[in-house]
Specification:
By secondary structure, this protein is of the alpha/beta class. It contains 8 helices and 15 strands. Helices cover about 30% and strands about 30% of the residues. The strands form 4 sheets. Strands 10-9-11-12-13-14 form a 6-stranded mixed β-sheet, sandwiched between helices. Strands 5-6-3-4-7 form a 5-stranded mixed β-sheet, covered by helices on one side. It has a two-stranded antiparallel sheet with strand order 1-2.
């Protein structure tokens, strides 16, 4: 008989919950029972024009932004103007789009669960949807290397849930040097969707922006930025080879290991100034 997990519904609506834990200290040879905070992962089902599109495993916060951002970073819609309404209720998000997006949804494949660890995309660098939209970022935007360090510092300072639980990623979008969106989530892909959705709803300019992230950068992360025209990604973590290839071909400047005054520029270095 399969195991059926039962979660307290009220607790699943919070970003974090307190649990009892046995804390072991081998140096002191001691074990204590203490209260600790852990992040919450809950299932969020997205319906588009009445049809189930995907299921996210996400923090139960910024769900409107998450779904709007996903529609944009997957190129299901071209702008927020294509979205007529968004309704969020009881772990379900219902979106009504003004244009026929069936062909684009079909290009993504059947509905899947967007896992909090790895996302849900195909492992190839460019997907069927990219054959329709052909993303390439041609922005002339430039940013100083020292500004990337400052952006990362702001991101870390705002990541309060991570400081509480140690169980989240975070992302932020800086447009023309100003912070316009921030999000935390159990999944690194979700954080990008949330900040893109938030920024788009507030009419931010993606062409002169920097996406700052705590997550590794595979192609699936890089292409989210490329599809909405974000020219620069800065991450505290490592790139994957697929991410470097995708960034090079999609015209995205990929900067990783942004830690203090050090960073590695992998693609389109001309957008980063003040380094020589």
């Amino acid at each position: 008989m399969p195991l059926k997990l039962v979660f307290p519904v009220s607790l699943m609506l919070q970003p974090s919950v307190k649990v009892k834990v046995k804390k072991v200290d081998l140096f002191r040879g001691k074990i204590d029972t203490v209260d600790d905070w852990v992040s919450v992962e809950t299932a969020v089902v997205l319906y588009i024009n009445g049809e189930r599109a995907t299921t996210f495993l996400s923090l139960p916060s910024q769900l409107k932004e998450l779904c709007v951002g996903w529609l944009l970073t997957q190129s299901i819609v071209d702008s927020v103007d294509d979205i007529e309404s968004v309704q969020v209720e009881n772990g379900k998000v219902r979106v009504r789009c003004s244009k026929n997006i069936k062909a684009r949804l079909k290009a993504l494949g059947p509905p899947v669960v967007t896992d909090s660890a790895c996302g849900s995309e195909n492992t190839s660098y460019f997907y069927l949807i990219d054959r329709i939209t052909k993303p390439f970022v041609d922005s002339k935007y430039r940013v100083k290397a020292e500004d990337l360090s400052s952006f990362m510092k702001v991101l870390n300072e705002k990541a309060q849930l991570f400081k509480l639980t140690g169980g989240t990623h975070s992302a932020a979008l800086f447009s023309n040097g100003e912070l316009v969106a921030f999000a935390e989530d159990v999944g690194r892909h979700n954080t990008v969707d949330k900040v893109v959705g938030s920024a788009a709803l507030n009419k931010a300019d993606f062409s002169s922006s920097v996406l700052v992230s705590t997550g590794r950068q595979p192609a699936s992360m890089v292409m989210k930025a490329a599809r909405v025209g974000i020219p620069i990604i800065a991450s505290i973590s490592a790139p994957l080879y697929s991410g470097i290839i995708a960034a090079e071909q999609a015209g995205v400047t990929l900067v990783c290991f942004v830690r203090g005054k050090r960073m590695n520029i992998y693609t389109h270095h001309e957008r980063i100034t003040g380094v020589f």
